[in-house]
Amino acid sequence: RRGDVKAVNDLATSAPLSLLKENKDGWIPLHDAAICGQTECLKIILRGSVDKRTLQEQTALLLAVSCEHLSCVQFLLETSADPDISSKNKETPLYKACELDNMDMVSLILSHGATVNQRCGQGWTALHEAVSKNNTEICEILIRAGAVIKTPSLHEASKNGHKESVAVLLTKNADANKPTNSGLLPLHIAAQFGHHEVVIMNEAITRILETALIVSLLVSVTSRARLRHSCVSPLHLAAEHNRHTVAAVLLKTGADVNTTLADSHSKQYADRRATALYFAIANGSTKAAEVLLNAGADLSLDPVSPLLMAVRQGCVSTVSLLLEREANVHARIPSYATTFPSVVALCMNNLLLLKCLLDNGCDALSCFTCTYGCAPHPTSGGSHIRTFCEWISTSVMCKWAGPIIDLLLEHVGHVQLCSKLTELLDSREEWLAVKRKSSSPRPLLHLCRFRIRTQIGRHRLKSLTSLPLPDRLIRYLSLAD
């Protein structure tokens, strides 16, 4: 280890067997000399044991490569060290050199006849590792040496956003239309994994642009028929993972914004989601949703309205975006029948989101419709269609009843609370003011505003600012004053 050539030479003469004695890990001095880069010691020790392995099946050559001792590697290879012997985890010296991004080491090992397509424990070849490092020069060397371009190489380059490696592999006739076992093409992989956020802004922008270029490269060589027969489109994957830049490139190059998921794949989701837009919203990808809506995404193709999913996610910006694009604020949940708007039930205690929906025409009046009125409500049974008073009285919701009812009262005229709602408001002293608001005559200012908003209609309420009205009146009708 110290490189004490004289001491090693004396031992080789006086006690040669000591140079073959193993330690507890199966190492002999040969291995120590290799990993420490002591070439002169290697020359003395190396007498018929060049390929001796440790308990982890590491040869001196592999150890020297691992520590990038080029002179040791050259000597061992010239002394007939076998470059194809792998360690216990099936790593060869060539694979290790590619992992270390050491082009000189790769060239040297190949020049001594290393097998270029040998696989490691995870099934990768040296080319796969070079692609994962985005080292195009090593890729070129390996391909010239006979490396077979298997589909996983192109998938790996696409996954990591390595534009240069993708370009090299495509010029070497890598097959962009051969799927992996999961059925995904390289274009799918690029759309899903091609960009990962990094801290430094300039690097993030660079990675986004490189991903967009990779998608552009793959689109031109990917079969449209293959894409049509895949269970999920690249656009779905880009939307699901908020790759809004990738989604924009896919749409620009001809992807159908309203393509739907294969039925076999859609069945895997309880809501039977179908469109890329729904995937974007379900995964909180507001930017991707906006890109899709700008491209003409249809809001009526999913069994469950995308608006309901956005409300469930609690994202006010996405909900506002969908309402601007004429989403139906009174969409129903197929499996949950109510006499009041489903969006109200999905808001839970999110008052900001509830206000956004009510301001955009959500029917607040239906929340105060109850067949029992002031009469006692039955404790069980009754209709399978749930009323607002039943929903707000549940153990999950009752603790927020006061603020929710208070907000609803701001969007209706005079209403009569049923006995269940009255009982709820009586349960807390701080909610008595809400009860007094409901039983007192509503201010004329409020009643006028409510009537005008009703006459204007829900659709025109969304474009109040474009009406030829004074700013003060617009603020009044928008509930800003």
Automatic annotation (TrEMBL):
<dbReference type="Pfam" id="PF00023">
    <property type="entry name" value="Ank"/>
</dbReference>
<feature type="domain" description="SOCS box">
    <location>
        <begin position="431"/>
        <end position="481"/>
    </location>
</feature>
<feature type="repeat" description="ANK">
    <location>
        <begin position="89"/>
        <end position="121"/>
    </location>
</feature>
<dbReference type="InterPro" id="IPR001496">
    <property type="entry name" value="SOCS_box"/>
</dbReference>
<dbReference type="InterPro" id="IPR036770">
    <property type="entry name" value="Ankyrin_rpt-contain_sf"/>
</dbReference>
<feature type="repeat" description="ANK">
    <location>
        <begin position="272"/>
        <end position="304"/>
    </location>
</feature>
<dbReference type="Pfam" id="PF12796">
    <property type="entry name" value="Ank_2"/>
</dbReference>
<dbReference type="InterPro" id="IPR051165">
    <property type="entry name" value="Multifunctional_ANK_Repeat"/>
</dbReference>
<dbReference type="InterPro" id="IPR002110">
    <property type="entry name" value="Ankyrin_rpt"/>
</dbReference>
<dbReference type="GO" id="GO:0035556">
    <property type="term" value="P:intracellular signal transduction"/>
</dbReference>
<comment type="pathway">
    <text>Protein modification; protein ubiquitination.</text>
</comment>
<dbReference type="Pfam" id="PF07525">
    <property type="entry name" value="SOCS_box"/>
</dbReference>
<dbReference type="InterPro" id="IPR036036">
    <property type="entry name" value="SOCS_box-like_dom_sf"/>
</dbReference>
<keyword id="KW-0677">Repeat</keyword>
<feature type="repeat" description="ANK">
    <location>
        <begin position="230"/>
        <end position="262"/>
    </location>
</feature>
<dbReference type="GO" id="GO:0016567">
    <property type="term" value="P:protein ubiquitination"/>
</dbReference>
<protein>
    <submittedName>
        <fullName>Ankyrin repeat and SOCS box containing 2b</fullName>
    </submittedName>
</protein>
<keyword id="KW-0040">ANK repeat</keyword>
<feature type="repeat" description="ANK">
    <location>
        <begin position="122"/>
        <end position="154"/>
    </location>
</feature>
<feature type="repeat" description="ANK">
    <location>
        <begin position="56"/>
        <end position="88"/>
    </location>
</feature>
